[in-house]
Amino acid sequence: MLNSTLVETAVAADRLEVSRRGTPVLHQLTFTVPTGAIVGLMGPSGCGKTTLMRTIVGVQRIAGGSLTVLGSTPDDPANRPRLGYVTQAVSVYRDLTVRQNAAYFAALQGFSVDHVDDAVAAVGLTPYADRRVEQLSGGQASRASLACALVGDPDLLVLDEPTVGLDPVTREELWEHLRALADAGTTLLVSSHVMDEAERCDSVLLMRDGRLLEHLPPRQLLERTHTDSMDRAFLTLIKEHAA
Ligand SMILES: Nc1ncnc2c1ncn2[C@@H]1O[C@H](COP(=O)(O)OP(=O)(O)OP(=O)(O)O)[C@@H](O)[C@H]1O
Fold it and tell me: Coiled coil: which residue ranges (predicted)?
């Protein structure tokens, strides 16, 4: 019988510890990500965002504590088709068109190609569907990578800095697409350096030096720190934790 807690919680970390090459990188992380939420993962360069995402998608070994992803262990092969992970590097074939890339990834994951056009539309690339990736701008190529993650209709989508290098209009459009996905039930974990993007999220995991400073909805972060910008809220929290 399915445990309702598992159904409502996409990711649950309990005193999670992760090391890289023997050096502890993530320390005692405890948090939950509710199903269908957009959770921002924010913090300075090197604080451990990518490491946490890699751990959630099952490619990084856990050194201590526990991590439950979609009701299972992160490395459970049964989870793989339910997860989409888009890294910072564009990971599509540059000599194939957007549609061909999406169809290839659908086939590779054993999914029907029915979703290909939907995935391409979801990232706003329908007008460019038949253009080779090498003929796209950097932001369009990033969105082509995202389309390839969407073809499998993942339950959990983990995006490493998807808005880097995007102009404000494209960034706005991408966030609208992400919100539409969440409204349809997909859980999203989205990392960013841009603190203002926290306002797009249902809640924000604020990290520093491999530790979780706070996990709060953006409005509560502002209230709690008595500030009016995410940048100031983050700086206030850093000072608080250093004190
Ligand atoms: N392959 C690796 N081997 C050893 N240590 C690593 C490796 N990759 C990252 N680290 C270390 O782990 C820590 C966390 O790195 P991580 O890439 O998770 O940070 P990040 O928050 O994603 O940074 P950025 O925002 O710059 O991408 C850093 O101290 C980094 O030097």
Answer: none
